[in-house]
Structure prediction request, 572 residues.
Amino acid sequence: MTAITPDIGRPSVEVEDNYLTHTRGFASWIFTLDHKRIGVMYMVSVLTAFLAGGIFAMLVRTQLLVPSGLLFDAAHFKMYNQVFTLHGAIMVFLVLIPGVPGALGNFVLPIMLGAKDVAFPRLNLFSYHLWIFGAVFALSSILLGAVDTGWTFYTPYSTQTDTYVILMVTGVFILGFSSIFTGLNFIVTIHKLRPPGMTWWRMPLFLWAIYATSLIQVLATPVLGITLLLLIFERTMHIGIFNSEYGGDPVLFQHFFWFYSHPAVYIMILPAMGVMSEVISTHSRKHIFGYRFIGLSSIAIAIIGFLVWGHHMFVNGQSALLGTIFSFLTMTVAIPSAIKVWNWLATMYRGSIQFTTAMCYGLAFLFLFTIGGLTGVYLGTLSVDIQLHDTYFVVAHFHYVMFGGTMIGFMAGIHHWWPKITGRMFNEKLGRIACGLVFIGFNLTFFPQFIMGSHGMPRRYASYLPEFQPYHIASSIGAYIQFIGFAMTAGYLIHSLYAGKKAPANPWGAATLEWTCTSPPPHDNFKVTPTVGDPYDMSNIVWDPKENGYVRDNSLAKSYSTTHQVAHQAHH
Prediction:
């Protein structure tokens, strides 16, 4: 859609009308009801928080270059505790949980449905404002007395420390409401705004993942909110809920916290898995393998994820029977994740793989997430977990799943939908180089931590025995390499905004509905509701040199469908 802008004394100039140019000014963004602009604001905010969390991570790794600590001596180890607490809290509550749903989910989900917007646009904007308010509230504690409890806020220490726990916890409490409202909005949108012909078994798998994630957000997040509210009451009124000095039970806090926080692992990872289904199918130029299994596995992960919280507490004195049950359930939840990995590998088999930046991040995801999942089997085994609990083995496992899974998946999604979001293409060569740096740096950072953790190096220590120094040096060098990779990524993405080539409507050859509108999309997404087909049938998507992108040729779809129907009948 274009608009003709007359200019006296000059030829008329065509100005493209899209969601970026439809209205202008700061107020038009901060008070917008357009899901696309809200998604962009989420992306900018989350990536800014990612930069802050990354800086704190670099301070941690710099401190651990020498056994006695490079930045904080023994008299200032509390400051080290504050630094790694801020790193963990920012990354979990401000980056990993809201990242993919808030940024990519908000932008892509309605367009994937062929809809104009989400079901509740005002609630969507309110969710973003709550995120900003919660983030400001939580991070303001830095100016007064940053929290030193770790991102889990474990009692009884969190009820006794003189740092500003209440301020941080209140911020996380507000962020929880943002998460709940976003999940509720997505559930209603998927139920009510699917276009004619888009049955549950014709939805893109990204929507299945977002749907499963939203269920967890709505059902689990209130538990965290109530727990943090009780923690505030404990600190202010000494009621005796978690603090044994007042007749409370610290283990009760662990049960409440992990009942939310283990499902929260899947709030982080499930959307990234949805991104993987889109990226791997599209950039392998092949129909997704095992569509229904992948879709149902997302729901299975959401359900079983509520039942495994006790594996975080194998050493807290719970009964052997309870520990055995939680260990069994931990092994069980690995099955639907393994189904996804298997189906993604089968999708790539004999596919025409295009090694785009998005696909490189997709391959990195498969490698890193698989390591994270397999090492989780060790920690889910009772006898092994007792030896590895609270060591760097847990740190490495956590980062391979959360960063190697969620953040790498987020990066894959950003590169996959960047042309659609911005209307500009980025430098693919620099993208692949940066992806390589992040991949190498990540493994150099965290793989040595498996080794020193198995040798007994405790986590969260500001100093350590000299025998562990080579591993810490390797980890710190790897962190610096990662930082360079992400800095390069920021550079070429920002550069693409003003110097990148104009993106076609469908640069990758995908078949889902968001690629049928222009790049960037119009304000209302579609003039008419688009025709729904198989979201992974790319047989009729052909390259058009005039468009410098892919277009749909419906004459090919019928022959492809007939051919495969005959082949299907012959097979059976």
